[in-house]
User: Fold this.
Amino acid sequence: MSPDSVAKYSGASPCCFAVGLIYLERMKKRDPGVCLTLANFQRLFLVSVMTAAKYLDDFYYSNKHWAEVGGITTQEINRLELEFLFRIGFNLHMQREEYDWYAEELHARVEEEALKAAQAAAAKPAVVPADEAESTLSARTTPSSSHVPAGAAAPARPPAAGGGDVQMDMDQHAGAPAPQHAHNGSKGQQAQHLQQRGGGSNMDWVYC
Assistant:
């Protein structure tokens, strides 16, 4: 599950994603022991956006649909929703000024990250294709016919410096498998994990 898949399949209004993050910040302020990590952020983000959609949108999907979007069971998302509401003190209302300020902060952060990515891409050296590098080197090293004495054999053209290695590296890169990103596994594996975890508080894993 990723924020993109939640945005695609949840049907929530765009503002619900900003409001969901505000709810997470409220939970963090209310209980400083809560720690957002890569291991728990996806489920917390899912339940916070679902809560925002129920509070703000006129039409929203059922918990069963949200559970399918997140790859967890309906029973689990029901428990997470209830405990999440208690942990933020059922404080779902906010002033327009608070939302506008938070939305501006998010836009500024996104623009900052985009600028950093563009600068990093511009700083990378350009990769010259092997055939182009070979032809450029040949034009520099091979003497013209006007400087070769009559009857003399033209000197052998030296191999392109590093050309073969560049091509081999490009071939290996092209044949290499795509990197695998971390994911939460199939819905069946997640459901089995949730069932095995058993008793205790449903959100104990949010603590550092």
Remarks:
- Confidence is low (pLDDT under 50) at residues 158-201.
